Amino acid sequence: MNGRRPIRVLHCITSLNRGGIETWLLRMLEAMPTERVAMDFVCKGAHVGALADQARALGARVHHVPLRPSHIGYLGGLRQLIVEGRYDLVHDHLEAYSALPVLVARRMGVPVIASYHNTSFAAQTWTGLPVLRQLRAAYAKVSIACALRGSDLVTGCSRAVLASVDPDTRYAAKSRVLRYGIPLPEHGTVAARKAFRADLGIAEGNLVVLHVGRFAEQKNHAGLLRVFAVVLEHVPSAVLVLVGDGPLRAAIERQVSQMGLGAAVRFVGVRDDVPSIMA
Fold first, then answer.
1. Residues 147 and 197 in one domain
2. Of 69, 161, 260, 266, which has the most beta carbons under 10 Å away?
3. Which of 152, 149, 178 is nearest to 165 (CA)?
């Protein structure tokens, strides 16, 4: 070591719930040499999320600064965190709310990266209600434009994502595609497969269609159910297993009931043994 302190990075996220981006961030945290980079998180959601303890076990600090309608508490709390944590870089993952970390970081002279992970940013809370949905969409447009203008670097997980936030390629010079990758998990065993099927009452020879994902609009569970209904017409013994949780779970459960698919669909919630389920 040369005696220099590690670069301190603060990731601004909604929460550390189970999801693709959150898993990727944890794998980065796990692989990052701590003598060179220190990663912490600040969550704006109602809670810090189910993976927060894993992040702490890997050496990260997990802060909770809830974002409320006035925004004042979040802006002040984020500024205080950056000062107290002596962060060298802010990495902004807030998408529709991405202007907030960018504004704070720029005012403090701290470099900031704005990252986007989706081509649309559907509301997941009460902001998705009628009228509010349109207001939030307008807010997101202004927020993203502000973040693009003020950030030092813009990343997207694909060219399509970058095109959705910057259709005129005004900020192409400072935009990069950042492809996310995580280590492949170990394969599940035959014994684990049999135990999982037995727990759900699924016969060994039955076709199982597995979907792993958060119950959110972009995951298109509604479309999946329509496709599965066609599968059932050809394979009556097929079973659809839905792994995950989210704001639309209750709505999907109602759709399953309305379509008469209850006997063929299993909701198993959040699981930590997905590789075994996929065996």
1. no
2. 161
3. 149
Q: Say if residues 229 and 198 touch (Cβ distance below 8 Å).
A: no
Q: Tell me the pTM.
A: 0.83
pLDDT of residue 186: 74
Residue where a domain terminates, one of 121, 149, 177 = 177
Q: Which domain holds residue 48?
A: 7-177
Q: Above pLDDT 70, what percent of the chain?
A: 95
Q: C-alpha 250: how far from its chain's center?
A: 20
Residue listed under structure tokens 């002279």:
109
Residue in the block written with tokens 């303890």: 53
Residue 251 domain flag: yes
Do 119 and 254 belong to one domain? no
For tokens 């000062």, name the residue: 83
Q: What is the mean pLDDT of the chain?
A: 91
- CA dihedral sign, ordered 165, 169, 174, 175: positive
